[in-house]
Records
---
Amino acid sequence: MPDYTNRASLRVDPSLAAFIEAEILPPIEQDADVFWKSFADLLADFAPRNRALLERRESLQSQIDAWHRERKGQPHDTSAYQNFLREIGYLVEEPGDFTIGTQNVDAEIATMAGPQLVVPVLNARFLLNAANARWGSLYDALYGTDALDAPPAKPGGYDQKRGDAVISEGRKFLDETLPLASGSWSDLTDIADAKLADPGQYVGTTERGFLYRHNGLHIDVQVDRTTPVGETDRAGISDIVLESALTTIVDLEDSVAAVDAKDKQLAYRNWLGVIRGDLEESFEKGGRTMTRELAGNKAVTLPDGTQAELPGRSVLFVRNVGHLMTNPAILLSDGSEIPEGIMDAVLTSAISTQDVRGFTRYGNSRPSSGKASIYIVKPKMHGPEECAFTNDLFDAVEDMLALDRHTIKVGVMDEERRTSANLGACIHAVRDRIVFINTGFLDRTGDEIHTSMEAGPMVRKAEMKSADWLGAYEARNVGIGLRHGLSGRAQIGKGMWPAPDLMGKMMTEKIGHLRSGANTAWVPSPTAATLHAIHYHRENVFELQQGLGEVPGLDKLLTIPVATGTNWSEEELREELDNNAQGLLGYVVRWVEHGVGCSKVPDLDDVGLMEDRATLRISSQHMANWLHHGVVTRDQVMDSLQRMAAKVDEQNADDPNYRPMAGDPDSIAFKAACDLVFKGTQQPSGYTEPLLHAWRQEAKKVVSLKRGPGSQIR
Ligand SMILES: CC(=O)SCCNC(=O)CCNC(=O)[C@H](O)C(C)(C)COP(=O)(O)OP(=O)(O)OC[C@H]1O[C@@H](n2cnc3c(N)ncnc32)[C@H](O)[C@@H]1OP(=O)(O)O
Ligand SMILES: O=CC(=O)O
Ligand SMILES: [Mg+2]
């Protein structure tokens, strides 16, 4: 049991309290006693409301479960189903015509189109890299990935053959994006001679080269004949640097493992560091120690000789956790744990208040109105009443921190079925602070399975991608967003590319996100951001948004993806189970035993896939669904888990800190994985957090016992 210190009616982890009082409150001139008193008052109001919303989720779910159970074996009656959903309040009336009223939004969010990067907050090295991913080297991205269709680089230094292919691809990009009045960029021997077909694309000179703009995004063509690349290039071009991640989501949610005060404090500390602008991280790379810090702005000399600056960093959002979890970092007066989403809202906003007040080194939010915003992404909200709760909570946080109304903006993850089905009403509930709707299709798939758990066995996981509900969900998100005036005021975003090593495939497929009307879409890494930026040069999203088709209705959206037949062969069943079990175990072992919330886990074909809590929700719910409906037996599931545990052990054999799972009855990770599947049907909305947190806390305890009091895994 951790020690606590008393603050107003709350009991607070002492180290967290000291951090808040020393580093968060003084810069914003908040008196500590006043802060704790108002925090306690806010909790007294919002914690019970939060609990009631969770009870409502459970009540709706049990009514839906019962409805399906009562109709087992009967054909699905679409209209009866929708009437029922209306009767129980799962579906609500749409709010009618309205336009969002959000103000003081940075251009990167409101009027520009470009990639959105996501980064786990607990990894400072990645976090700094992500914030700096506003600019990325196209040459590095092409040289190092399969986005370039050329033989792979030979090991041992610079491979000039591959380098030549990169240069040639770079020239193609320049011809496409910045066409010359005549001829090709390949013909130039001196960039100063470049005469653009549209001279308005030229912006000025930078430290190393010439700056252009196309579709609102900048391109820095750098010239340096002393570099290995520049010396082989006709015009001395050493790199083409693209404006890449316009925005980055700093994630406190599904890509991190944060289960107690210590983890949460690190999360808040890293957020404070990037907001204040002084976060630094030293690490070993390529045999030497590097120190990474935030990049400064890019200096530009305009054609008339005046000096200007472009932002050197992504505009940062912070993704708070949803309404479900609680955390032992703070206890309420009745001894219960604080709702974690409320703690995140208060503390991440208090940190960002330094930015709003203009006390930070660079400034995260700097809209043209001069009134800065705090950008919070709110995940996993179920329907309009939960969005209204968030709106009220943010009002209360603003009052607590003496912020103007609607300073705190919200990005709504459209990733739960009740939200997709009532999206207009959800937007309405946060209409004066909304800055994005993003289709989190991974969580959304997990919720699709869990909501209709009793309806029958689901189609195979790969088939979900072409299911009716998914197409309708994606199209409705854009259509409803446009209907309520998000274009030009807020982002309409699309989901993650979860295959960090398949950049060639991403280049072919992810342009579809723009064509379907999204002005941003998620990428897993800075390299992916730079490559995905090319798509925003190829297509003008704001023009495309004008010509989109009909918005699909509810019928398609609510089509349940149950399989039409279940006569899968033994081999197909095993393949499906193994695929799910491998991703699940490969992810869970690192979460529970190493505190890593996002991992690249090789699939059965050895392709590294990004796994996070949302992908875990899908695999665990899918296995639970097939087990529940007798498509597979408990023995088959266990057999798959055991075989895949051995495979995951093999994949981690080089890690000296890894504890094998196969054949170890005490393996905490394996027990966690089993729970996620065998107790899957009972998990709230199919979420994995409750079990992951419990098992991670157990793992921390075991290590602490072994190493002595006070020690922890991290
Ligand atoms: C459903 C959802 O909610 S999706 C949102 C949650 N998902 C995410 O946030 C994905 C974030 N991405 C990641 O965590 C990682 O890219 C992973 C785990 C997928 C792969 O990580 P790794 O195997 O370490 O990547 P890999 O070895 O290919 O590359 C590491 C390099 O790329 C950088 N990098 C990789 N991902 C990121 C990122 N998201 N942000 C910043 N830098 C990154 C690292 O800093 C490192 O470079 P460095 O050595 O100069 O520091
Ligand atoms: O948060 C994103 C998702 O796909 O889930
Ligand atoms: Mg999600």
---
Amino acid sequence: MARRKTARDVALDVLMAVEERGAYSNLLLNDALTKSGLSSRDRGLATELVYGTIQRRNTLDWILNGLVKKGVTSLEPWVRHLLRMGIYQLRYLDRIPGRAAVHETVRMAKERGHRGVSGLVNGVLRSYQRRRREWTLPEDPETPEKLALATSHPEWMVRRLMEVYGKETARAVLEAGNRPPRTAVRVNPLKSDRETVARLLSEQNPGMEVEASPLSSQGLILKGGGNPARGLLFREGWVTIQDESSMLVSEVVDPRPGERVLDGCAAPGGKTGHLGERMKNEGVLFSCDLHPHKIRLIEDQVRRLGLTIVEARRADLRELPGNVEPFDRVLLDAPCSGLGVIRRKPDIKWSKEPREVASLTSLQAQLLDAAAELVVPGGTLVYSTCTLEPKENAEQVSAFLERHPEFRPDGSLEDRLPEAVREKALRGEGWVQILPHHFDSDGFFIARMIKAK
Ligand SMILES: C[S@@+](CC[C@H](N)C(=O)[O-])C[C@H]1O[C@@H](n2cnc3c(N)ncnc32)[C@H](O)[C@@H]1O
């Protein structure tokens, strides 16, 4: 009978699949954990190994390049992932004794390869244990190369962040990228209120600390004490797991009951759900996405929340003008390079390339042009991304406003932002940029514009 998979086996399978299929680590990991039958402790270890190994890849490869004769790229992919995971445990997981990490890694090498591979794995890990002082990271990294190594990000990203935000801020952003994401939930005002839900969550989850979010009036931050996605409050639609910066987006859209609202890039439906809640389930909420397989995710979301005003449809936003009546408010939460959500999806660091930004900015401009046509005179357009790249954010919006003199940046945005955001975030005319270290939340850009009457 086949041996049951351990946390390390599951983690290695996910690491290989992320690279082979180019899929997001969080989706693959969730899927693998659901099928694994692992205890909650082992699920925690598998999660830490997957995220940690991807997060620290730069630093791990720097070490491995000093230990593997022909360098880390000469290794078969599974051996490379296994060694990265082994070194990760030795370097970053103090609670795992070194000999257990080596023993388990060598066992996996034996099971998956021939004797030569397990010999190599054993030799590399033991050499690292003996020589680990040789890999001391600079305490105050001055250059982009050193900062890339110390924070384990690709050099092009470090250079770009330094160029845009300066060295100190870039470093704070990069360090925030390595911190584990906080869990936040949005309370559904159609079912309850923030105080009641905070009390229920604390009662139902011993050890969980619950705090009000400084970013959203509907948000709660949860620390420790279980997974809210498994609880009754989630299943019954009282809460939705969502990052606090994301919550701010629908608050800035500020839709009113009875209006016609479009969520133009909607899947998986996090913001659609929030818009529907704020509309008190009255009016029309048209929610579309390009990819047919994602429409079900929006439908599941709105059903769970008890929303009946949502029409979820597969559509290319660029083809909607002329085919639907215009809307009082349009949200364009555009596809982007995702540099603000690296702590949640660390694989973005290694899968994105600078040239992708160029193709994304051109897609975003096309989406914005289509969205503009879909707003009624006097209506509101909100553009948001979860990235930190100005070409996709403030520069994108400036170019849009030049192409569309019928729109003006909305100066009232300032008054709509919570005080904490006004104090910390970067702001321009009608836009706000939250960086990941400001609130330990996702990095987000939000711009609000008004169409002339
Ligand atoms: C950042 S995600 C949206 C996240 C969503 N607003 C939420 O809060 O859950 C961007 C979405 O845009 C969709 N998309 C990309 N190109 C599109 C297009 N031409 N028309 C409509 N949707 C598109 C992608 O499939 C993706 O789901």
